[in-house]
Amino acid sequence: MVNAAFTEIREAAFAHIPSLQFLYVPVLASRCVPMFPPCADAFPFSLQPPQLQQVHTDRGQRLRWPLTPPVPVCGWGWGRGNMGGDTGTRMGTQGRAGDMGMGMETQEWGWRRGEGMGRVGGSEEPVPHATISSHPRFIENNDIQALSKATFRGLKSLTHLSLANNNLQTLPRDLFKPLDILSDLDLRGNTLACDCQIKWLVEWLESTNTTVPAVFCSSPGHFEGQRIQDLVLGDFQCITTDFVVHQVLPFQSVSAEPFTYASDLYVALAQPGASSCAILKWDYVERKLRDFDHIPAHSAVHCKPIVAQEQLYVVVAQLFGGSYIYRWDTSVDKFIKIQDIDSQKIRKPNDIEAFQIEGEWYFVIADSSKAGSTSLYRLNQNGFYSHQALHAWHRDTDVEYVENDGKPRLIIASSSQAPVIYQWNRAQKQFAPQGEVGEMLDVQMVKHFRVKRDQFLCLSRYIGDSKVVRWEGQRFVELQTLPSRGSMVMQPFSVGQRQYLALGSDFSFTHVYLWEEEKQKFAKFQELLVQAPRAFRSVLAADVQLLLAPSFKAKTMVYRHVVVDLSL
Q: What residues does the LRRCT domain cover (predicted)?
């Protein structure tokens, strides 16, 4: 620290650098630096860095630490600079890199020969007062590995600073912000990593008038040996995302279906343990989900809301006791049962999908019993009625509606055969079998996603590996295999321009993957602690992007998607 006019160095000003080994005592403009008891009354301060070994004065003297007896030290700094000479002599201008080649002249130096700071065990006595002036001083040639953001707080008059030849790998953001009139800065001889933590320095170098000699990157590999001054902000990829816990719902659930009705956001959750379909409403003030209503359902596996023709319906699928359709009655503000679903066709429902084709509303129920049949229902003026029996006696586990090349399709996953593709016949207004998705048995769930013009399927398996396949012409081609032992759910979802994939497991953490466009595959991104997840649903609540994670064995989790700037 050089050319300063400090009037005070406060307590613990250098407590952030415990690895300091050498202390240089310069000539500053303060009358006394209260390091020791003689100054304690005016400036209570104690500086005893555990690694400090020597103190340097402007006369080239070196003293061991701690100093005994305590002395008043007037004007001081850090470093191992090439300083020397007697009082009244001019010091050489040819210094090392850290000295920045500056001439320095001592004046009225406070420590006189025979009267200055004596070596431990020597006969020299401390001088009680000193006359001081300002000179360049340095913090260099130490083993400083890290600095606190507050290291230079309050040093507004500092003009020259050398941190050369240390072991600094990064610098805290806005480290030099307190130094209003800093004119020279030396960072040479450090091993700075040019990552997101140093991005602020690149921005600062572009705008500052401070003279800074060339500093080179030591890492990462693609920046190694490159001048930091030559980097541009666009070289840094510092924006990432994270899923953080937003809310914990104190109940178990096996499905989650968000929907919007009358401009409000709701979520329907199947709770077999609580024998109900819970309807939660988003509170825009508290920014949380709150209880709204409950539909009785003794063994609910899926509660599917459908908003059609300004009416709200909820299809309640139960393992036992039949399945039903409810409608929200605005006159009494409650759900009323309007229809039973044929229990001879739907014996053991497992999934429900709702969609529109040519302006008409349909829903399809996947049936997982040996004697049941996956069935399609259509909405007319009086309710939903059976439209087509699709896939009988195959123990279907999941169904997905996909529009591909302008053609509506259903893909039905089964425990007994590979997923089957049905294509909509516009003339007959029914689905007709089209083929299968590869040779992949025992698929628990099938979900689709789109990236640009490409259509993909995610096929999850409880035993074996799950797969990602891509539609090419008239068939799906395998693209990626993901380990997924114990998986009951594999859900793709997008947030903005990012495409994610949540792969749940009954035996380990849920893995969230992020789509890499260049490699055309998913890469591991994050782990979430969700016990036995049965679904993942992404929903935008005002300005909050949520990820709902129903759990069969524990509390239902609600995560929030956040954007993180690693350079801050």
A: 190-239
Q: How far apart are the C-alpha atoms of 357 and 543, rounded to whole Å?
A: 31
CA 367 to chain centroid: 40
Contact 479, 523 (CB under 8 A): no
How many domains, in total, are found in the chain? Answer: 1
Residues 6 or more apart whose Cβ sits within 8 Å of residue 81: 24, 56, 95, 96, 98, 99, 137, 138, 140, 141
| pLDDT (tens digit per residue) in 278-325 | 999 999 999 999 999 999 999 999 999 999 989 999 999 999 889 999
**Which pairs from 305-311 meet CB under 8 Å and 24+ separation?**
305/257, 305/259, 305/261, 305/266, 305/268, 306/354, 306/361, 306/363, 306/379, 307/259, 307/260, 307/261, 308/361, 308/379, 309/361, 309/379
What one-character DSSP code corresponds to residue 33? B
Question: What digits encode the pLDDT tens for the residues 479-494?
Answer: 999 999 999 999 999 9
Asked whether the predicted pLDDT for residue 107 surpasses 50, the reply is no
Establish if 53 belongs to a structural domain: yes
Structure tokens at 106: 């001592």
CB 337 within 8 A of CB 296: no
What local confidence, expressed as pLDDT, does residue 10 receive? 61
CB-based contact 82:103 (threshold 8 Å): no
Q: Which residues contact 9 (CB under 8 A, 6 or more apart)?
A: 30, 33, 34, 43, 45
Strands annotated E in 222-263: 239-249, 255-261
In a domain, 221, yes or no: no
- Three state DSSP letters for 277-293: EEEEEEECCCCEEEEEE
- Report the mean per-residue pLDDT for the chain: 81
> Residue 393 domain-assigned?
no
Q: Which domain holds residue 8?
A: 1-191
3-state secondary structure 511-545: EEEEEECCCCEEEEEEEECCCCECCCEEEEECCEE
pTM: 0.75
Cα separations in angstroms, 358 against 183, 355, 362: 72, 10, 11
CA distance 469 to 262: 38
Query: Which amino acid, one-letter code, is at 328?
Result: W
Question: Does residue 456 lie in a domain region?
Answer: no
DSSP-assigned letter for residue 199: H
Q: Locate all alpha helices (DSSP H) within 213-282, ordered by sequence.
A: none
Output 84 or 500, whichever has higher pLDDT.
500
Instruction: Give the whole-number percent of the chain exceeding pLDDT 90.
Output: 64
Q: Model confidence over 151-171: pLDDT tens digits? A: 888 888 899 999 999 999 999
